């Protein structure tokens, strides 16, 4: 949530306590597959996550960083509820995750994203670079 001065009313929390259904519900609200079977297993396997609740205590933002916890981490699932997008919450979420990555000792954080989000992630400090993607054949 945002105040008139552009600041968030509530704080983005690292490892915010979550119910297993909350992230899949938020994923579905932005048009993604809910991946219900991933939760709560994901919380046991990622390095850390961050979340934000609104005044009604509903989850409105979520993201996480996974990896071996050594030098490199992978940021994934940066999600902001459609009714709360374009208010600075996504950038605050990414920044909070990167601050935690630094505190955690990670030196490199990578992510993949649709090219339409180039400006957003560049503004968050990411440098676009080439990469590759492998998918299992069905």
From TrEMBL:
CDD domains referenced in this protein's UniProt entry, alphabetically: NAT_SF (cd04301)
Q: Which UniProt keywords apply?
A: Acyltransferase, Transferase
Spell out the protein name for this chain: GNAT superfamily N-acetyltransferase
InterPro entries linked = Acyl_CoA_acyltransferase, GNAT_dom, NSI-like
Per the record's keyword annotation, is Cytoplasm included, yes or no? Answer: no
Q: Which residues does the UniProt record annotate as the domain N-acetyltransferase?
A: 13-138
């Amino acid at each position: 949530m945002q105040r008139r001065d552009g600041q968030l009313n509530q704080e983005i929390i690292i490892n915010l306590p979550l119910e297993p259904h909350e992230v899949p519900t938020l994923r579905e609200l932005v048009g993604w597959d809910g991946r219900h079977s991933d939760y709560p297993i994901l919380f046991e396997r990622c390095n850390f996550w961050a979340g934000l609740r609104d005044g009604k205590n509903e989850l409105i933002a979520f993201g996480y960083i996974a990896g071996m916890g050594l030098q490199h981490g992978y940021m994934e699932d940066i999600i902001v509820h459609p009714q709360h997008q374009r208010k600075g919450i996504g950038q605050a979420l990414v920044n909070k995750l990167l601050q935690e990555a630094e505190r955690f000792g990670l030196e490199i954080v990578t992510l993949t994203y649709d090219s339409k989000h180039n400006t957003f992630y560049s503004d968050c400090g990411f440098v676009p670079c080439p990469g590759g993607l492998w998918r299992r054949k069905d």
